[in-house]
Amino acid sequence: MKNNNKLPRIALGTWSWGVGFAGGDQVFGNNLGEKELKLVFETAMKNGLNLWDTAVAYGMGASEEILGAFAKTYPRESLILSTKFTPQIAGDSADPVADMCAASLERLGTDYIDIYWIHNPGDVDKWTKYLIPLVKSGKVKHVGVSNHNLEEIKRAESILAKGGVHISAIQNHYSLLYRSSEEGGILDYCKENNITFFAYMVLEQGALSGKYDTKHPLPEGSQRAMTYNPVLPEIEALIDSMKNIGEKYNASVSQIAMAWAIAKGTTPIIGVTKPAHVEDAAKVTEIILTAEEIGELESMASKTGVDTRGSWEHPMV
């Protein structure tokens, strides 16, 4: 990310923290609050993983409130906090972006956000310009765009540049099963412009964790079960390949998925709900995959024929 060389190689995601609309209970089949997550947060901080990604839309503020409760117990400068403006839930005031940002600041218990994102490209020309005064005021240190294709990214950059602000980060769905941002030239654009690419859903909500198969499906009743349980047979061969490569590194399937994302020059955002998830993530940077292994993984992934594009995403290519 521009102007910041201190970012850890892995970001920690909080989509499954808290309950409510688009929250952990509905999407992931979890029901997690401060009591269950406190040790997760503390384990991460002890391991130097201090980059936390959330959004208003995760449980309609519930995720931010939990993260904020933990953040208040640490010096602010020891944390990197990332949250988002979601156009689909914007109000109709004179500056809905500033309003949503102010509410996020309050829930997070801070007076500035390290990375503030436009969550979805509802209307690039309408929303992007509102980020400029937030940066000028110091309430936002860096800005990013999420779920934007290359054309939309370039348009957002041109709008921001007029105000002396630049895109520091891109956050898109990117995994072995969904490489649309790479195919659409976004990864190359990021490298050329010194922009950090944050890859979310690297584990495809657990489908690429090695914990689930046809005999052990994802939690029934959750959105992720409806999405991934039908394709578990198609990804078995890929999971087997990930297991085999993992044996060489004494690594889990999840760790191989993360190591692949890092090898591709991205910063994976890993959803953490247990201390063990954090400990696994902390060890991933020690895994350096060979070009042959990367090629094998990508070949096996292509053979699955599975498309995991989310209902909220439009095509990147």
Automatic annotation (TrEMBL):
- The UniProt record lists the NADP-dependent oxidoreductase domain at 9-300
Kindly list the organism's lineage.
Answer: Bacteria, Bacillati, Bacillota, Clostridia, Eubacteriales
Asked if Oxidoreductase is a keyword of the record, the answer is: yes
Protein name (database record): Aldo/keto reductase
Keyword terms: Oxidoreductase
| UniProt GO molecular function | oxidoreductase activity
Say which domain of life the source belongs to: Bacteria
Q: Does the keyword Transcription regulation apply?
A: no
